[in-house]
Design brief:
Radius of gyration: 23 Å
Order of helices and strands: EEEHHHHHHHHHHHEEEHHEHHHH
Protein name: Oligopeptide:H+ symporter
Strand order of the largest sheet: 1-2-3
Family: Belongs to the major facilitator superfamily. Proton-dependent oligopeptide transporter (POT/PTR) (TC 2.A.17) family.
Shape: globular
InterPro entries: Dipep/tripep_permease, MFS_trans_sf, MFS_Transporters, POT_fam, PTR2_symporter_CS
Number of strands: 7
Membrane topology: Multi-pass membrane protein
Keywords: Cell membrane, Membrane, Transmembrane, Transmembrane helix, Transport
Low-confidence stretches: 1-14
Distance between the termini: 37 Å
Length: 498
């Protein structure tokens, strides 16, 4: 993407003075491009993943196992964002953590490109670890570019940064998906590795434009803490190696020995984190009250993401087997559906921002709770809409591509109502003691939702059946109405947060 480089005559002495990127610190261009290429590699591989898992020329798994693997993978990416942020804060500092993360992601994609089922799962693990390391730390470095939270350019800088996410997410399925589906699956994964390599190279070359504090470890581990952490990690690693060695040598090993523990962790860890914060005696009464309100938002968000993220698995597998993937007689790769959401986000996000501002000026902007409830109802409505193409397929016909586009459209509108509000309310309701950790807690809602999908798939539930889809849709709509009906109570618990 072409950059606009100008001289900034304003704010001497603040980060990013001198040459600027669309009026923002020059380092934003470095982080923008890094995030764009990382998202290009991530979403390109993710678009191919469920299709490769079920393809006769891929791993040729059944739809349930493929959905479970996909869901576990996505839940791990978000679960690992918390330890990734911890590494940036306590061990390497954000800049080094992002550099290491980029190398791990690239290595993961290269491992996926090897034509072996054994190395495939190792590659998935590497990409998940690298994405977790990168996710929290690169956003932190964007904040470092500005002169504190009151810098008027800060919000605009994050908006530009998130455009990089959506540009990468939009382009990836069109390029990587086409190569993977039409040429060779492993060439597609190799192309994802190339994308991450480009992002890593430009990050290393452009890191001189980043704020100096991005190289600082904010709260380094003491020698005692480091020794204790390594000791605990070695003990748990040893237990895992011994346990899986026993299972393997006894001839009882199956893929579920990996999938089931990971999905259970994806549900248990979010619950444990919330319980730990809620039971902290150091929190005062207002903070305790806000955490009680936040649990409502968290549970509702987990339901939302459980359905929303099936757009990359359940819907993709349905499109592969039961949809007429053509426009005016021209057939397109199934992975292209994954470009619908990012292009809609880029088109509609400015409209939503303008709309909320216009309503706010008239004193009619919906409350946080109403927006959140509406997002839940809409994601439920998207799965009620999914019943139509499912019924068409049950009748022996191919469902039109526009049915799926309509589902993605409704889900995107729901996302624009719920996701920005969730991020905002997380920062506003965070107890002071957990201010830096709460964004990771928000990501755990995605982990819990995807892990639930994984557990359903492992249990043999066919997520492409009318009854199951209707049940999930009803759950989301009921959850949305529950949040709305109890909005006064939740508002009381939120205290001074609006």
């Amino acid at each position: 993407m072409a950059s606009s480089l100008t001289k900034d005559p304003v704010r001497p002495g603040t980060p990013g003075t001198g040459t600027t990127f669309f009026g923002h610190p020059r380092g934003l261009a470095t982080l923008f491009m890094t995030e764009m290429w990382e998202r290009f590699s991530y979403y390109g591989m993710r678009a191919l993943l469920p299709l490769y898992l079920v393809a006769p020329g891929g791993l040729n798994l059944n739809a349930g196992t493929a959905t479970a693997i996909y869901s576990v993978y996505v839940s791990l990416v978000y679960l690992l964002a918390m330890p990734g942020g911890w590494f940036g804060d306590r061990v390497w500092g954000p800049r080094k953590t992002v550099a290491v993360a980029g190398a791990v992601i690239m290595l993961g994609h290269l491992t996926l490109a090897l034509p072996s089922s054994g190395t495939f799962y190792a590659g998935l693990g590497l990409v998940a670890i690298g994405s977790g390391l990168l996710k929290a730390n690169i956003s932190t470095m964007v904040g470092h570019l500005y002169d504190g939270p009151d810098d008027p350019r800060r919000d605009g800088g994050f908006t530009v940064f998130y455009m990089g996410i959506n540009l990468g997410a939009f382009a990836a399925p069109l390029i990587i998906g086409t190569i993977g589906e039409n040429v060779n699956w492993h060439f597609g994964f190799a192309l994802a590795a190339l994308g991450m390599a480009l992002g890593l190279v430009q990050f290393l070359l452009g890191s001189r434009h980043l704020a100096a504090r991005s190289s600082v470890v904010p709260k380094p581990l003491s020698a005692e803490e480091k020794a204790g952490t390594l000791r605990k990690a070695a003990v748990w690693a040893g237990i895992a190696v011994v346990a899986y060695a026993i299972v393997g040598f006894s001839g009882h090993y199956t893929l579920n020995w990996i999938l089931v523990p990971l999905t259970l962790l994806g549900v248990i860890i979010p619950v444990m984190v919330l319980v730990n914060i809620k039971r902290d005696k150091e929190l005062d009464r207002p903070e305790q009250s806000k955490m009680s309100a936040y649990i409502w938002f968290f549970v509702a968000a987990a339901v939302f993401w459980m359905i929303y993220d099936q757009g990359g698995s359940t819907l993709s597998i349905f499109a592969d087997s039961s949809a007429d993937n053509t426009v005016l007689g021209w057939e397109f790769p199934v992975s292209w559906y994954q470009s619908v959401n990012p292009v809609l986000i880029m088109a509609m996000a400015p409209v939503f921002a303008w709309f909320w501002l216009a309503l706010n000026k008239r004193g009619k902007e919906p409350s946080t709770i109403v927006k959140f409830a509406s997002g839940l109802v809409l994601v439920g409505a998207s799965f009620f809409l999914f019943l139509a193409p499912l019924s068409i397929a049950d009748g022996g016909h191919k469902a039109a591509a526009m049915w799926l586009v309509a589902i993605y459209f409704v889900q995107t509108v729901g996302e624009l109502l719920l996701s920005p509000v969730g991020l905002s309310v997380t920062t506003k309701m965070a107890p002071a003691k957990y201010a830096s950790q709460m964004m990771g807690v928000w990501f755990l809602a995605v982990t819990a939702g995807d892990a639930t999908t994984g557990l359903l798939s492992i249990a043999g539930v066919d997520l492409n059946k009318n009854g199951i889809v209707a049940m999930e849709a009803t759950l989301a709509v009921v959850a949305g109405f529950a949040v709305w009906m109890y909005r006064k109570r939740v508002k009381e618990l939120m205290g001074d947060v609006r």
